[in-house]
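User: Predict the structure for this protein chain, please.
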Amino acid sequence: MKKIVGLTAITGIILVLAFAVNFTPADNQVTAQTTPFPSREKVISVTGTATTSVEPDLLIITFGVETQEKTAKQALEKNSQLMNSVVTAIQDVGISEDELSTSRFNIHPVYDSYRDESGRYTQELIGYRVTNSISVETTNLDLAADIIDSAVGVGANRVDSVYFTLSPEKQLQIKDDLIGKAVLNAKSKAEKALSPLNHQIIGVKAVTLSEFGMPPPIPLFAGDFAMAQEAAVRAPTPIFSSEQDVRTTASVIFLIGSN
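Assistant: Here is the predicted structure, written as structure tokens:
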């Protein structure tokens, strides 16, 4: 009798262990197969574009004076005299002090390299060079040629760049206008694509706006001392602005449904 009870107890343990072994993997399998129901939303993703041509309203000219003398003091004094003359000249043609800013100023030694009697290369300090560049930013585009000619005429020996671009205010105005047009363009594309499919737009799920597609400024003139000297002796500099293409995009995900 005791043996039967002992066997029953052992059998019970075996059955419990078997239960654990047989059903634990099944539970894991069920869990692994359980996934959320897929979204039942019907959508269409479209990218709309908008482009316009605009006249630039900002002129940026960068030019300066470069001088070299035996001492840093001499180079700086000569540079300052010439730069003061340049500033006065461009103010005389209609540029205000608020439209002027220093873009670069540096002083550095100048060395002459040569080979000595022993055949080794050596360097000798021969002077100091001072470079002082200023930028003019004005909305009076018609002054471009006058600014360059007047500056070069009194001592500016660097005309680094001339750009026509858009002012921040005009950029913002154009951006606001183009965003709306780009979204409407996306909607028009979606409607044309859905028409033969017997579907229509019933809502908007998401809108993604791209960065404003500002074109790079238009460089019209860049030069150094030789080019500046040439400009000083030739006829008045002809400079004309041109229209710039501005572009932006908008990606829209529309919710759609059957007609």
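The longest helix spans residues 2-33.
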